[in-house]
Write a structure and sequence with these properties.
This protein is an alpha/beta fold. It has 17 helices and 14 strands. The protein binds uridine-5'-diphosphate-glucuronic acid (UGA).
Length: about 450
């Protein structure tokens, strides 16, 4: 059993800490936000993540998981210390590692034994070396000799399925210098890798880059599909059918091919920008990343134009928005496409009726100051007297809608499906004017697909 300290209790830190405790380790989660620490001690999780609250409560009750705001309480005696700090974007898109380096200094100021320091945050190539230098310099100032080793162990969990991703990872990536550190890390992660070996050991630089490369590849697939979806609309093809055909090819695979209103969240947009900035530092251009970002921004804009084109003028119109978080099963609103649409619609003078199954409290904090925004109890209340509904996030409950009831509540039966969740033919049968992504509004006869436009 290892004594583990995790610095930072965001999605990555808290989920990692709780999962390591679940596997029998003694884990202390450390955060400088004392309010957060107090609420965690009381068993309250500061964000919505399925299964996490039960996991935390169970491990706190079993005495394996602890929370503190005090470095001096957490660090002494630690065998493995994970750094799971935020790495936000600087203004130029590059990654800001200042939280990590500050935590590294505080860690060094409280160290009293040899240990392994593991970087779990998403950081530019070379950051493990920066952390190493920071700790060394602080130990030198203290005049103490403590041996430590740096490991890079990027995280691949997704919000909304973070606990199961962490408990059943596709791969566990370890960037490592020495055999000794490899032994310790393998021991720690073997319980997560029992069915078949998921542990990949490599050099530190490659591990650091692999994390960015993975997120950038996911974002590239999405932007490719989103761009193709708009082309489908022009030539009379259906992106859903095209996706099925592509995904059936095992070399391509069927994941991350769903077109929509653009990707959001705290990772994909930020990491694509950071990888681009890393390239710029080495005078290496990565034009594909520019396109990925440009297409993503354009996707949201094009969807807004579709709405504006149908409802013009937007001024005085009432619009319901179903789903606010950047994807289902999370209350995270960072870079959520819904927020982009809300801003554009409010600027154009529309009134909004908003509903999200989980993200309402966070949405109220952000949008409370707008008179034209009404926060609704459910999707039916949101639809009342609306000129249109926008489906912005595909929460499961939006798949079981009584559309006859919804239609009767609305002023005009218009539906903009930003996630391709409904069948066009069924919605049209119910009398809805239905718009989605990547399917032509009207069936275009094949022969006319390439006909010159007038
Ligand atoms: C992403 C990665 O998937 C994780 O592997 C990674 O660990 C994490 O970032 C991170 O770096 O911490 P996450 O940001 O939680 O995870 O979100 P995803 O589930 O990847 O979704 C990203 C966006 O893509 C969402 O806006 C989602 O709606 C969109 N998406 C996803 C699509 O539009 N279509 C799809 O087919 C899949």
């Amino acid at each position: 059993m290892k004594k583990i300290t995790i610095i930072g209790t965001g999605y990555v830190g808290l989920v990692t800490g709780a999962c390591l405790a679940e596997k029998g380790n003694r884990v202390t989660c450390l955060d400088i936000d004392t309010e957060k620490v107090d609420s965690l001690k009381a068993g309250k999780i500061p964000f919505y993540e399925p299964g996490l609250e039960e996991l935390v409560q169970r491990n706190v009750a079993a005495g394996r998981l602890h929370f503190t705001g005090d470095y001096n309480e957490a660090i002494p005696g630690t065998d493995v210390c994970f750094l799971a700090l935020p790495t936000p974007c600087n203004e130029d898109g590059s990654c800001n590692t200042s939280y990590i380096l500050k935590a590294a200094t505080q860690l060094a100021e409280n160290l009293d034994n040899d240990l392994i320091v593991v970087n779990k945050s998403t950081v530019p190539v070379g950051t493990a070396e920066d952390v190493e230098r920071t700790i060394q310099s602080s130990l030198k100032t203290r005049g103490v000799e403590i041996r430590f080793e740096m490991v890079s162990n990027p995280e691949f969990l997704r919000e909304g399925s973070a606990v199961s991703d962490c408990m059943n990872p596709d791969r566990i990536l370890l960037g490592i210098h020495s055999q000794k550190a490899e032994l310790v890390m393998r021991e720690l992660y073997t319980p997560f890798s029992v069915d078949h070996d998921r542990i990949l050991v490599m050099d530190v630089f490659s591990a650091e880059l692999a994390k960015y490369a993975s997120n950038a590849m996911l974002a590239t697939r999405l932007s490719f599909m989103n761009n193709l979806a708009l082309f489908c609309e022009k030539v009379g093809a259906d992106i859903q059918q095209v996706r099925k055909a592509m995904g059936a090819d095992q070399r391509i695979g069927d994941k991350y091919l769903k077109a929509g209103i653009g990707f959001g969240g705290s990772c994909l947009p930020k990491d694509v920008k950071a990888l681009k900035a890393m390239g710029a530092l080495k005078s290496h251009s990565m034009p594909i990343l520019d396109s990925v970002l440009e297409i993503n921004q354009g996707q949201q804009e094009t969807f807004f134009q579709k709405i504006e084109g149908r409802l013009e003028p937007l001024e005085g119109k009432t619009i319901a928005i179903w789903g606010l978080s950047f994807k289902p099963d999370t209350d995270d609103l960072r870079e959520a496409p819904a927020l982009f649409l809300i801003e554009k619609l409010l600027n154009a003078g529309a009134s909004l009726r908003l509903f999200d199954p989980i993200a309402m409290p966070k949405a109220k904090l952000l949008l409370n100051q707008y008179d034209q925004v009404l926060f609704c109890e459910d999707e039916y209340e949101a639809a009342k007297e609306a000129d249109a509904i926008i489906l912005a996030t595909e929460w499961n409950q939006f798949q079981f809608i009584d559309f006859e009831k919804i239609g009767a509540l609305m002023q005009n039966k218009t539906l903009f499906d930003g996630r391709n969740q409904y069948q066009k033919s069924e919605m049209q049968k119910l009398g809805f004017d239905y718009f989605c992504i990547g399917t032509p509004k009207e069936a275009t006869p094949l022969s006319s697909a390439y006909a010159p436009t007038q």
